[in-house]
Amino acid sequence: MEVILLERIAKLGQMGETVKVRDGFARNYLLPQGKALRANAANKSRFEAERATLEARNLERKSEAQKVADALSGKSFVVVRSAGETGQLYGSVAARDVVDILAAEGFNVSRNQVELNQPIKSIGLHQVTLHLHAEVELAVELNVARSAEEAERQAKGESLTSADAIYGVDEDALRPEDFFNPDAELEGEQE
What we know:
Layout: E1 2-5, E2 18-20, H1 23-30, E3 36-38, H2 41-72, E4 76-80, E5 88-93, H3 95-104, E6 114-115, E7 120-122, E8 124-133, E9 136-145, H4 148-155, H5 163-167
Parallel strand pairs: 4-9
Antiparallel strand pairs: 1-2, 1-3, 5-7, 6-8, 8-9
């Protein structure tokens, strides 16, 4: 199906372009959300008549998104979750959690604006991409830790999942023979 785009859509086209898309994508997403019109003579003339208002509305949305992006740029957010000794979370941090964290800080971001291909399942510093507008995108840092103190240590660059951090042992000093030596004879069995 051919449609006329009413706004810029990533990986598809710019406002005003006539593009060919799959019928289901047009019927289920583009047309109901007002992101496109069917490509016919009547809709082409309608688009040309409304082009100035559509461009003004797009520019306004972009400027609002840019203000939010400027406020969020360079920020790091601490997420406290329960985790095992190896750093594996007992749950996960999903897009819904990122939205809740940002809302607690006063930023209004919807779940579909958070790009998180897989939930975060380990402690550490994680980059999460936010698509605030088709032309405005930024990355925020999530500091996932077991406590606020660990989050501070992690922010300074310490690793909380290494043997040194967990057991107080220097990883370089560990050797396999310190743990298991199959050639060693067991004491007390030679009688």
